[in-house]
Amino acid sequence: MNAKEPAMKTNSFSNARITHALTSASPVTALVLGLLAAVAQNAPKTEGEAWTIPARAARKQNPIPTDENSLAQGKELFVAGCLPCHGPAGKGDGPVAGTLERNGVPVRPGDLSNAKLWEQTDGTLFWKISEGKSPMPSFQEAFSEEQRWQIVNFVRTLAPHERDKNQKAKFGDKQ
Ligand code: HEC
């Protein structure tokens, strides 16, 4: 018993010291964390960083029906504007894919033939195409809104999906 008491005293003493140290450090810590967050926000986007889509943009409805006309138009625009990087089937293996970099670091185009593409809304795809993300250019100026929706419709046919099976069977021979 006697042997334990001094030990306990030491413990509570050092706990108090630590608590005090943390309390007095926290405003500084908070300031440093705040500064770091501000710096991170202003830093150019790096590879692997999530591509954050405004909620309103993600909810935007696609006004262009997925029909023969929009898919044909979308395919033509894709071949002209996207194939160089994303490749003919959207696998990210276009002729210039190997030359892309961001801040000097090599970066690959996204794989548009991955079924995960269906987890993204039309509005999200539309926003990504419109805004771009270096080295992917923004297509807001190059393509009209209607054209960008047509591209969204076509890009959907590159990734396997239940809802898409009929479209693929119907348009597969034309791709
Ligand atoms: C100069 C090369 C380049 C061109 C041209 C280009 N992209 Fe991209 N694209 C990229 C790169 C690089 C990424 C990966 C960006 C990231 O997330 O870091 C990407 C990402 C994407 C994504 C996101 C993929 C995902 O998994 O979320 C979509 C969708 C996309 N591109 C569609 C298109 C479409 C449609 C076009 C044509 C209108 C196009 N891109 C043209 C390089 C390009």
Can you characterise this structure?
- With 175 residues, the chain is mostly helical.
- The protein has 2 domains: 4-42; 55-166, Cytochrome Bc1 Complex, Chain D, domain 2 (Orthogonal Bundle).
- Helices cover 52% and strands 2% of the residues.
- The protein is built from 7 helices and 2 strands; from the N terminus they run ααααββααα.
- A two-stranded antiparallel ribbon has the order 1-2.
- Helix 3 (68-81) crosses helix 6 (145-156) and helix 5 (122-131) crosses helix 6 (145-156).
- The radius of gyration is 26 Å and the shape is globular.
- Residues 1-16, 18-24 and 28-47 have low confidence and may be disordered.
- The structure holds heme C.
- The site of heme C has 22 residues, from helix 4, helix 5 and helix 6.
Structural class: mainly alpha
In angstroms, what separates the terminal alpha carbons? 84 Å
Number of strands: 2
Question: Which ligands accompany this protein?
Answer: heme C
Share of residues in helices: 40-55%
DSSP strand content: under 5%
Rough shape?
globular
Computed CA radius of gyration, to the nearest angstrom: 26 Å
Order of helices and strands: HHHHEEHHH
How much is the average pLDDT? 79
CATH topology of the largest domain: Cytochrome Bc1 Complex, Chain D, domain 2
Q: What CATH architecture of the largest domain would you give?
A: Orthogonal Bundle
In the CATH scheme, the class of the largest domain would be Mainly Alpha
Strand order of the largest sheet: 1-2
Low-confidence stretches: 1-16, 18-24, 28-47
Total helical elements:
7
Sheet with the most strands? 2 strands, antiparallel
CATH homologous superfamily annotation of the largest domain: Cytochrome c-like domain
